[in-house]
Description:
The structure is a single chain. By secondary structure, this protein is mainly beta. 12% of the residues lie in helices and 31% in strands. The protein is built from three helices and 15 strands. The protein has helices spanning 28-35, 75-80, 90-100; strands at 2-5, 12-18, 21-25, 45-47, 53-60, 112-114, 120-121, 125-126, 137-143, 147-153, 171-177, 181-183, 188-189, 198-200, 207-209. The strands form four sheets. Strands 2, 3, 6, 10, 11 and 13 form a six-stranded antiparallel β-sheet that branches. A hairpin with a 2-residue loop joins β2 (12-18) and β3.
Amino acid sequence: xxxxxxxxxxxxxxxxxxxxxxxxxxxxxxxxxxxxxxxxxxxxxxxxxxxxxxxxxxxxxxxxxxxxxxxxxxxxxxxxxxxxxxxxxxxxxxxxxxxxxxxxxxxxxxxxxxxxxxxxxxxxxxxxxxxxxxxxxxxxxxxxxxxxxxxxxxxxxxxxxxxxxxxxxxxxxxxxxxxxxxxxxxxxxxxxxxxxxxxxxxxxxxxxxxx
Length: 211
Ligand SMILES: [Zn+2]
């Protein structure tokens, strides 16, 4: 599946779950051990909480800066940042996207934050900076098992982690990959009714252009 950063500044929270057992999912903690670094590069295999490969990064034209350290944003994060009332967030986007497939994630695993720029400074401090990805750049991931993959275009607009030119918040896309592939015709608002997905052949490429 290819994720195209249409406008260049969007952070995309990414999850993958074993389609046969949602309790097995892509784990950033385990993946950092497997790849020996904190930012995956082309050829790196991300693994599950059972240490089995689930996604491989096979192409990256975005500059290679992603994050595996930061938790998905949630309503409490925005409360701490001073949001008044409800704020869209990646945690709820994940739940909504999975619900549209009739699934319930066992938890909100730490996501692979595509395009998110969190440098480690002085060997210890972390700081959110704008993405370095450019318009039209992309990342391609290959599934290593039948899995459910979920993306949330992060609606963070209260820190610098998603650039100012990001898409409207609340967008969500999700699909099955490497099994029977189902993909909505377009990225969907998380709360909108799900259209009938079109089945695709096993292994056929999927491209998601960010809204
Ligand atoms: Zn987010």
